């Protein structure tokens, strides 16, 4: 019987010892992300100060010629080093060795994903609206790691007894067809703009059916292809998006006010203004746009 790492949170549960590297990786990832965000905010807040910096105060890393080294560079190096270490340990390494390498991997992954928006846009958009992609990527990574720790497996039907015990062609074909159909459902859900439903649905398959059947988000590719010529459906998608996003926006505005020292529930006008900025209908594809060019 394999030993387990018992974490007493008031629940009758335990984490298998074999998942210790994943747990340590997740903890290192979360801590690194929060520490990095805190340091970067501190540097930005004191960027215009003329006071001489003390040795312990955080500052930007620069090379010769004023070159600013983003922390994504350090993250890439750590991810590559730890990845090579884990591949090497895969031959005869034990859990302690994997745990040490996974901690470095978690730190490196956090530094990389914290600047995911920079990689995506090939521009330093860290503090702009596009910079939210970094935070979204981090939350997705944390959610996926959490599901793995809890024992959920993506495309878990590959682990069923049919695949392991029944080696007939018919059984293997059935499993492969199920896998392809599940992946297609996940693609449909992602095209509808439901990233969280698509990712979690890879672990909990019924969510994919729910996400594929329900309306698309109004800004998603699916809405652009299917709803731009169906105004009623686009209107329903917009109304549904506003209804779903309203509590999220309210919580976000309340948190911003709380951090600034004045916690108060945001008024409807401010919430509606934020919703107007965030929610929009997808533009029609080029082949459906009216040609306004004058004929000579």
TrEMBL record:
Transmembrane segment boundaries: 20-40, 61-91, 103-123, 135-157, 169-191, 198-216
Keyword hit for Oxidoreductase: no
Secreted keyword on record: no
Organism taxonomic ancestry: Bacteria, Bacillati, Actinomycetota, Actinomycetes, Mycobacteriales
Keywords from the named record: Membrane, Transmembrane, Transmembrane helix
Signal peptide range: none
Superkingdom assignment: Bacteria
Name recorded for this polypeptide: Membrane protein
Stretch list, region Disordered: 276-296
